[in-house]
């Protein structure tokens, strides 16, 4: 079945699902495969549970007697082609967002600002890969006026794939840092891959990027693009500065000769750039300055990203969704500058750093020696055997047992680590 005919069937449905456990009435089921599952085997079940059509790529699951099962050559490729076809049909204005750190928060802030004026579709959760981006695009409705699409990558070429599916009209790389080095091979590999967004927009012609003015790596690869610049230098399209951060970011921004002040619910001075990016994009799309300020001051972060959690015993800064050398150092710098009498840092290992893993973890330990926090708890095998005198535990279960026996009380606690370390389970123990 070609993509045009399949799209005609898709328009008869009220959405698309790839999960046979979630089959809304009248939706289309598309069978994907993984290491431990084959979605083709659930095609008939999805129809019985309410789907209008099921799309498969293995002939034994299709039958001429059942016209509701549609056979294609490759379901993953079909998902991506269908999403691109749908995106082109609707012609929605599209903002592409990628970067090493801050892309999810930036995406959320951009969406919050644009919603002050438009009907906005934006990436939910971590749906930012070769499956998540198409699924997001297929949620587009004619009433959506703007879409904000987050794109992640841990190997070269992945952003190139995603931009050719989403076809953004403008875009932002929040920054480039040392993350997923195991997949990228080097920091230069990170820059090249994130830069695939710029490459696409450059080929598209007359496209705009939003760029952090003080970032030398981004400036180096931005040649030939229309740049809207934001940062801490005066005279930019959007300039800003931190006023305070104890603990929430309070900042000012200037554009078009006007100065504005915003008190946010964001933890960390490192969120200034994320907020200024949202300001720059909001103004580009014609959102009024006062509405931009309202959106930024109203936004409350979720999903263990720089969240302030107050328990009966402690004040927690929970940033346990992701960690790499760049974001780890930013979190520690911010924590060191915070005003608190008793500070405890609980840090989980940073994953996917390849051969440089031991060196990067040692750098974190060396910096911790300078910080002189009241207590430091390191979690994960990557911290074992380093030149450090801090407490060390192999996993979060060991930490939970220790905290049950020796509770932490009346402290400000930073919880930072890669998602796979499961440090998000610790607030219940603190």
Automatic annotation (TrEMBL):
<protein>
    <recommendedName>
        <fullName>UDP-N-acetylmuramoyl-tripeptide--D-alanyl-D-alanine ligase</fullName>
        <ecNumber>6.3.2.10</ecNumber>
    </recommendedName>
</protein>
<comment type="function">
    <text>Involved in cell wall formation. Catalyzes the final step in the synthesis of UDP-N-acetylmuramoyl-pentapeptide, the precursor of murein.</text>
</comment>
<dbReference type="InterPro" id="IPR000713">
    <property type="entry name" value="Mur_ligase_N"/>
</dbReference>
<dbReference type="GO" id="GO:0009252">
    <property type="term" value="P:peptidoglycan biosynthetic process"/>
</dbReference>
<keyword id="KW-0547">Nucleotide-binding</keyword>
<feature type="domain" description="Mur ligase N-terminal catalytic">
    <location>
        <begin position="14"/>
        <end position="83"/>
    </location>
</feature>
<dbReference type="InterPro" id="IPR013221">
    <property type="entry name" value="Mur_ligase_cen"/>
</dbReference>
<comment type="pathway">
    <text>Cell wall biogenesis; peptidoglycan biosynthesis.</text>
</comment>
<keyword id="KW-0131">Cell cycle</keyword>
<keyword id="KW-0963">Cytoplasm</keyword>
<keyword id="KW-0961">Cell wall biogenesis/degradation</keyword>
<dbReference type="InterPro" id="IPR036615">
    <property type="entry name" value="Mur_ligase_C_dom_sf"/>
</dbReference>
<dbReference type="GO" id="GO:0047480">
    <property type="term" value="F:UDP-N-acetylmuramoyl-tripeptide-D-alanyl-D-alanine ligase activity"/>
</dbReference>
<keyword id="KW-0436">Ligase</keyword>
<dbReference type="GO" id="GO:0008766">
    <property type="term" value="F:UDP-N-acetylmuramoylalanyl-D-glutamyl-2,6-diaminopimelate-D-alanyl-D-alanine ligase activity"/>
</dbReference>
<comment type="similarity">
    <text>Belongs to the MurCDEF family. MurF subfamily.</text>
</comment>
<keyword id="KW-0067">ATP-binding</keyword>
<dbReference type="Pfam" id="PF01225">
    <property type="entry name" value="Mur_ligase"/>
</dbReference>
<dbReference type="Pfam" id="PF02875">
    <property type="entry name" value="Mur_ligase_C"/>
</dbReference>
<dbReference type="GO" id="GO:0005737">
    <property type="term" value="C:cytoplasm"/>
</dbReference>
<feature type="binding site">
    <location>
        <begin position="99"/>
        <end position="105"/>
    </location>
    <ligand>
        <name>ATP</name>
    </ligand>
</feature>
<dbReference type="GO" id="GO:0008360">
    <property type="term" value="P:regulation of cell shape"/>
</dbReference>
<dbReference type="InterPro" id="IPR036565">
    <property type="entry name" value="Mur-like_cat_sf"/>
</dbReference>
<dbReference type="InterPro" id="IPR051046">
    <property type="entry name" value="MurCDEF_CellWall_CoF430Synth"/>
</dbReference>
<keyword id="KW-0132">Cell division</keyword>
<dbReference type="Pfam" id="PF08245">
    <property type="entry name" value="Mur_ligase_M"/>
</dbReference>
<feature type="domain" description="Mur ligase C-terminal">
    <location>
        <begin position="305"/>
        <end position="418"/>
    </location>
</feature>
<dbReference type="GO" id="GO:0071555">
    <property type="term" value="P:cell wall organization"/>
</dbReference>
<keyword id="KW-0573">Peptidoglycan synthesis</keyword>
<dbReference type="InterPro" id="IPR035911">
    <property type="entry name" value="MurE/MurF_N"/>
</dbReference>
<dbReference type="GO" id="GO:0051301">
    <property type="term" value="P:cell division"/>
</dbReference>
<feature type="domain" description="Mur ligase central">
    <location>
        <begin position="97"/>
        <end position="281"/>
    </location>
</feature>
<dbReference type="InterPro" id="IPR005863">
    <property type="entry name" value="UDP-N-AcMur_synth"/>
</dbReference>
<dbReference type="GO" id="GO:0005524">
    <property type="term" value="F:ATP binding"/>
</dbReference>
<keyword id="KW-0133">Cell shape</keyword>
<dbReference type="InterPro" id="IPR004101">
    <property type="entry name" value="Mur_ligase_C"/>
</dbReference>
């Amino acid at each position: 079945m070609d993509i045009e005919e399949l799209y005609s069937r898709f328009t008869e449905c009220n959405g698309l699902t790839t999960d046979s456990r979630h089959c809304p009435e009248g939706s289309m089921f598309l069978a994907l495969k993984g290491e431990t599952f084959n979605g083709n085997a659930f095609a008939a079940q999805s129809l019985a549970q309410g789907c209008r059509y099921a799309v498969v790529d293995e002939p034994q699951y299709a039958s001429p007697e059942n016209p509701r099962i549609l056979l294609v050559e490759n379901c993953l490729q079909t998902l991506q082609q269908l999403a691109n076809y749908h995106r082109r049909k609707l012609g929605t204005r599209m903002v592409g967002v990628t970067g090493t750190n801050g892309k999810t928060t930036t995406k959320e802030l951009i969406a919050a600002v644009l919603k002050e004026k438009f009907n906005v579709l934006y990436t939910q959760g971590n749906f930012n890969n070769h499956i998540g981006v198409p699924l997001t695009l297929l949620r587009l409705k004619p009433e959506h006026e703007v879409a904000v699409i987050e794109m992640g990558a841990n190997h070269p070429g992945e952003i190139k794939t995603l931009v050719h599916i989403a076809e953004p009209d403008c875009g932002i790389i929040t920054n480039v840092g040392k993350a997923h080095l195991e997949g990228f091979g080097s920091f230069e590999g990170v820059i090249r891959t994130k830069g695939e967004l710029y490459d696409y927009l450059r080929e598209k012609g007359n496209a705009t990027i939003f760029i952090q003015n003080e970032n030398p790596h981004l400036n180096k690869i931005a040649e030939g693009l229309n740049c809207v610049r934001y940062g801490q230098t005066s005279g930019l399209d959007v300039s800003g500065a931190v006023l305070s951060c104890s603990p929430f970011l309070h900042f000012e921004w200037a554009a078009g000769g006007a100065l504005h002040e915003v008190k946010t619910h964001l933890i960390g001075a490192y969120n200034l750039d994320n907020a200024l990016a949202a300001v720059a994009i909001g103004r580009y799309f014609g959102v009024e300055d006062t509405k931009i300020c309202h959106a930024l001051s109203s936004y409350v972060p979720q999903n263990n990203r720089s969240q302030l959690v107050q328990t009966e015993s402690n004040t927690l800064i929970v940033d346990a969704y992701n960690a790499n050398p760049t974001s780890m150092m930013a979190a520690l710098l911010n924590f060191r500058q915070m005003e608190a009498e008793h500070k405890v840092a609980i840090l989980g290992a940073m994953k996917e750093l390849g051969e440089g893993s031991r060196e990067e973890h040692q750098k974190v330990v060396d910096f911790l020696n300078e910080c002189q926090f009241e207590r430091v708890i390191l979690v994960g095998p990557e911290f074992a055997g380093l030149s450090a005198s801090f407490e060390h535990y192999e996993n979060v279960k060991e930490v939970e047992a220790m905290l049950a026996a020796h509770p932490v009380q009346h402290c400000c606690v930073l919880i930072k680590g890669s998602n796979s370390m499961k440090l998000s389970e610790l607030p219940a123990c603190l």
